[in-house]
Amino acid sequence: MTATAAPSPILPGATIGFLGGGQLGRMTAFAARSMGYDIQVLDPEAACATRPVASRTITATYDDVEAAISLASECNVVTLEIEQIHPDVLDAVAARCALRPGREPVYIIQDRIRQKQWLAAQGFPLGRFVAATRASDIADAVSTFGPCIAKSTHGGYDGRGQVRLREAAQGADAWDALGARACLVEQMVDIHYEISVLVARSPSGAVAVYPPSRNHHTSGVLTWAVVPAVISDAMTVRAQSLAKAVAERIGIVGLLAVECFVTTAGELLVNELAPRPHNTYHHSERGVATSQFEQLVRAICDLPLGATDVFAPSAIANLLGDVWLQDTAPNTSHALAIPGTRLHLYGKAGARAGRKMGHLSAIGTDAQDALGRVLESYRRLSPGTVASFDVHEPVLAHVTS
Ligand SMILES: Nc1ncnc2c1ncn2[C@@H]1O[C@H](COP(=O)(O)OP(=O)(O)O)[C@@H](O)[C@H]1O
Ligand SMILES: [Mg+2]
Description:
The protein has about 400 residues and is of the alpha+beta class. It folds into 3 domains: about 15-100, Rossmann fold; about 130-185, ATP-grasp fold, A domain (Dna Ligase, domain 1), CATH 3.30.1490.20; about 190-390, ATP-grasp fold, B domain (D-amino Acid Aminotransferase, Chain A, domain 1), CATH 3.30.470. The protein is about 30% helix and about 25% strand. It is built from 13 helices and 18 strands. The chain has helices at about 25-35, 65-75, 85-95, 105-110, 110-120, 135-145, 170-175, 235-250, 285, 290-300, 330-335, 365-380, 385-390, and strands spanning about 15-20, 40-45, 55-60, 75-80, 100, 130, 150, 160-165, 185, 190-200, 205-210, 215-220, 220-225, 255-265, 270-275, 315-320, 340-345, 355-365. The strands form 3 sheets. Strands 10, 11, 12, 13, 14, 15, 16, 17 and 18 form a 9-stranded antiparallel beta sheet that branches. Strand 4, helix 3 and strand 5 form a beta-alpha-beta unit. Helix 1 (about 25-35) packs across helix 10 and helix 2 (about 65-75) runs parallel beside helix 3 (about 85-95). The longest helix is centred in the middle third of the chain and has 18 residues, at about 235-250. The structure holds adenosine-5'-diphosphate and magnesium ion. Magnesium ion (MG) binds near residues 259 and 272.
């Protein structure tokens, strides 16, 4: 038997490349810099959020093979913070340096229909769905399932590229609104609460699973997330083993976030997957032994994965562009006077309604306390957007199912 060489870690001093330079790339780049890595980034926007942290920024679209080759030629490993990367770009990078995660999981995840069909074929628990290839398929789905949500296959995020339907007669409008091309139609799930589970996996197959995060969305956009999730131990175990199984089956190297619904009937369903850092784990920078950003660096560089223990209950609240579009400027001093809070801004020029500009975080004595602090800090920062933010004192009732 021939001994295979142990995979060698990519050590500090090496260069990490990022496909995508938004806030996820920026925060990962900060973590990588702290550990002594150099950073290069490719993003369509010259003034992308990662630019100030990178030694080199390549301004190019995610289907520009030549630009991707240029990135790969100066990097030891390339990762990504967005899944909408053209497969030819993934192949070109993988031919020149380590691409983590690899082509296959990204290819499966980047198309919502392909992702759902893969999850179904593997036997993972899902809500009911169909792949619609014409307007009448949407109408038929609503007739069969009742209220539905139609989602574009590519490029949707933060609730964009989605249409909610109550009646079959709305099918034609939904088809047109989504660009008159194939889309995913899901039955509206009777959601009791939403959680996500982040899994890190290294090239050697080592796995670290994070404690579930409890998440709250308003109009399809994440408003807050908190850890620990305040759910039963049984549900924690179920969610973690489900997420770990998905990560292993899809062969992720790096991070996989598994978004889940827990239904009013107590079922645990997979909503969607993300092969990258995730908005619902920004609190890991405050209250978890290893932040998701450091963990991604460790995983793609084949260093030992860090501990995922929660050492402080912590919560985040997203700051959308709306906060900067009010008559009164955000009151930062008032917001940060709440003990345990921190402000994170992504350095994006140009606040637009719905655009993620930053987040507030807080640690507390328990999950409810951390959440209460971050939401109070939010109210102080931007009293004018509270109504749209949907913060009517959410209560983390202990869930026993
Ligand atoms: N089938 C569904 N039933 C009920 N709510 C849903 C369904 N699909 C999505 N949602 C709600 O919309 C949010 C965003 O949808 P998601 O599919 O995760 O898209 P995105 O890529 O924008 O995050 C979810 O977190 C959930 O709150
Ligand atoms: Mg989602």
